[in-house]
Write a structure and sequence with these properties.
Elements (H helix, E strand, L loop, with lengths): L6 H5 L15 H16 L2 E4 L2 E5 L6 H4 L3 H15 L13
Antiparallel strand pairs: 1-2
Helix pairs in contact: 2-4
Length: 96
């Protein structure tokens, strides 16, 4: 099975690169990540020795009590990324 090396594409910073995004940022992925972080904080309670510094609105839920807020974070990140279009396949013309 032959594979094609994409090494030169990694160094190509032009808009024709396989790894070019709008302004160099994959905004759908960034937005999904930021939304998931906010949801994750909702399940978080931070403090030491009984002094609570921060408690998210869902920290008292079953997921929050059992430290499973990361599951909701993962589901939100994946779901929102898919709803925004996910990783779109683009045809690349390799002219070398």
């Amino acid at each position: 099975m032959a594979t094609t090396s994409r090494g030169p594409d990694l160094l190509d910073v032009s808009p024709t690169s396989a790894y070019w995004y709008h302004g160099g940022v994959e905004w759908r992925a960034f937005t999904s990540w930021a939304l998931a972080i906010v949801i994750g904080f909702c399940f978080t309670s931070i403090g030491i020795s009984g002094h609570v510094w921060f408690t998210g609105v869902l920290a008292d839920s079953w997921l929050g009590h059992n430290g499973l807020g990361w599951i909701a974070t993962f589901v939100v990140a994946a779901g929102s990324y898919l709803m925004m279009g996910g990783a779109r396949h683009t045809a690349l013309a390799v002219a070398r």
